[in-house]
Structures are given as structure tokens and as C-alpha cells.
Design a protein that fits this description.
The protein has 323 residues and is α+β, with helices and mostly antiparallel strands. 37% of the residues lie in helices and 18% in strands. The protein is globular.
Length: 323
């Protein structure tokens, strides 16, 4: 399991918010959906992404891919100075700035939305609606807004997404979820491998012969009763040497990393499976459900059962019409 696989294999898009936005200037949309991650790419025309506060606007041309990390708001417009005319809130709910609904009036077809059917600007938008706990380390490593230039070319994945996004076939939402995942993985792989990239510690540590092996052992076998001594034995170094090297490269001690990883895996198991709290506790290395629940609540702010029932998660409302 490599760095990206270990952090993206668990939290996949599930019912992601995907649409084609077609706009005729002047246009400007304020994004306040608090989504953890949004991917945007132009298929025609250009758009400016204006981040919150004093950050510089970013120009998005055909073939480019932009990734915006929530929950901070931002604006997408034909020009940086165009005043917002509409707002997209949590769950993809679109309104005027006064709160009047726009979802139906700007509906242009299957997963297609905008102010003009033949608008000069067309943007593909893919939004992850829920925070996947395993991906939190990855999200924290990204800037609020990153741009991957297409250099005049368009990736095969973007072409396929453009073809599939407006289709209305059985199982289409699953197809689009997987395409969004592939697009994200491809983008992040390119982002972290670019010259001068400031990749996070855990990503760089995966290339270390000792710490990389230790990380893979912890990620692949979270239920194992690991100790620093046992981990050092499996990696062929001294206990003190492993602890020092691991902390230096990853930014936290091995057992602290393991606890965070276990609780992240547990969060996804609670949300995605019917396993009992006791079974989840055992799967991530806790022999007692009470100890697991205490640790989980300390990190999440709610107990495992409350988390499963939706407390502590963002609201997921009905979004723009897709048919």
C-alpha cells in the first residue's frame, strides 16, 4: 500500500455532487457549501476562482484542473470583479443572495445547470460532500486552492467525465463517483510529484526504507497489538532509532500515528457497515468497546453510536436537480 492508496482507498465518493455548469457572462457564483473538496475544470471558455480573504484569483482555462479545499467559501466568476448573483450552500442548494431558490429556474437538463443553454463558459464540477476520516491527513496537506495546468491538453479522464456527466443510465451515479475518485488520485499524484513540491511528511516518509515500511505495517494491520519495539523488530532497526526517525519524518510518534489511523478506519466502518461497535473496536485493535468508545469520543466529540446515527456529521440536503 503506497502513500496515496493508503489514504484514498477507504473514503471514496458516495453520491458525490456532480454537474455541468453552463454560463453566459456576466456571471458569478458564491460557493458556501462547506464541502471538504471540489474539483473544477473548463470544457469551454474561461473562469476565475476567487478565494476567500486576500488570496490572488486563479484563472481556469480548458484542460486545467482546480481543486478547492473547504470549508472556506470562494467565488467562481467570468471576471474577478463580477459581483456574485447566486449562492450555492450546503448540499448543493442554489439560491439568490437573498435566499430565493434557483435550482429549478436554472435547470438545463440532466446534471446541467446555468443561466444560458448555449453559454460561452462550460465548467465540470465534482464535489465530495462528506469528510472521509481517512483522507483528513491528505486534506490537511493541501492548499486552500491548487491549480494543475493542462498546458492546452485535456486529460482522458476529463474527457470521459464530460461524456458521462449528463447521461441518465442505471447506476450512473456510481460510475461518476468512481470517475471523480480517479480524477482526484491522478491530480494529487501529479501535484505531489511536481518539481519543488512541498509534499506532506507522511507522503515523503513512504519513500524511506524504514519509516515507509513501518507506515505500511500500521496501515495494513491496524488491529495488531503494535508496540514500538514490535515495529522496530519488523523494520530491522532499534526501538530508539525507529521512534526518532519516524517522528522526524512523519511529524508524530508511531503510536500516536497508529491511534489516529485506527480511529479514522473505525469512523469509516461505522458509517459504511452494519458491524456492531464491539466488532469495529476489534477490527481496529481495541479489545474492549468501552476503551474504543472513550478514545473515539475524545477525538470525534461524539460516541461511536452517535457518529453512526449522523451526529457530528455535516447535513446532507437535496441538491440541484439532476434529471
Amino acid at each position: 500500500m503506497d502513500a496515496l492508496a493508503g489514504l484514498l482507498d477507504g473514503p471514496r465518493a458516495r453520491g458525490a455532487f456532480l454537474l455541468r455548469m453552463v454560463m453566459e457572462p456576466p456571471w458569478s457564483v458564491r460557493i458556501e457549501d462547506r464541502a471538504p473538496l471540489c474539483l473544477m475544470s473548463m470544457t469551454a471558455g474561461e473562469a476565475w476562482i476567487v478565494p476567500a480573504e486576500d488570496a490572488e484569483p486563479v484563472l481556469l482555462r480548458p484542460g486545467d484542473l482546480a481543486i478547492a479545499r473547504g470549508p472556506e467559501p470562494y467565488t467562481v466568476a467570468d471576471l474577478p470583479g463580477t459581483a456574485p448573483q447566486s449562492r450555492i450552500g450546503p448540499g448543493g442548494i442554489c439560491t439568490t443572495l437573498r435566499g430565493e431558490p434557483l435550482s429549478q429556474s436554472m435547470h438545463l437538463g440532466v446534471r446541467t445547470w446555468g443561466n444560458a443553454p448555449d453559454g460561452a463558459a462550460t465548467m465540470l464540477v465534482g464535489t465530495y460532500l462528506l469528510d472521509g476520516e481517512i483522507s483528513r491527513r491528505l486534506l490537511d496537506a493541501l492548499p486552500a486552492l491548487l491549480l494543475l495546468p493542462g498546458d492546452g491538453r485535456r486529460s482522458a479522464l476529463l474527457t470521459l467525465l464530460d461524456t458521462e456527466i449528463a447521461r441518465d443510465e442505471p447506476g450512473q451515479s456510481v460510475v461518476l463517483d468512481r470517475l471523480l475518485d480517479l480524477l482526484l488520485i491522478d491530480a494529487l499524484r501529479g501535484w505531489f510529484s511536481r518539481p519543488g513540491a512541498e509534499a506532506p511528511g507522511w507522503y515523503r516518509a513512504m519513500g524511506d526504507p524504514v519509516v515507509g515500511r513501518a507506515l505500511r505495517l500500521l496501515q495494513n494491520e491496524p488491529a495488531r497489538p503494535w508496540t514500538v519495539a514490535a515495529l522496530a523488530d519488523r523494520t530491522g532497526v532499534s526501538r530508539a532509532g525507529l521512534a526518532r526517525r519516524f517522528t522526524e519524518l512523519v511529524g508524530e510518534p508511531p503510536m500516536t500515528y497508529l491511534t489516529g489511523w485506527r480511529l479514522a478506519v473505525a469512523a469509516d466502518l461505522l458509517r459504511e457497515t452494519d458491524a456492531t461497535v464491539e466488532a469495529v473496536a476489534r477490527k481496529v485493535g481495541y479489545s474492549q468497546a468501552f476503551a474504543f468508545s472513550t478514545a473515539f469520543k475524545r477525538v470525534r466529540g461524539v460516541g461511536p453510536q452517535d457518529y453512526r446515527n449522523g451526529r457530528g456529521l455535516p447535513d446532507r440536503q437535496e441538491s440541484l436537480p439532476v434529471t
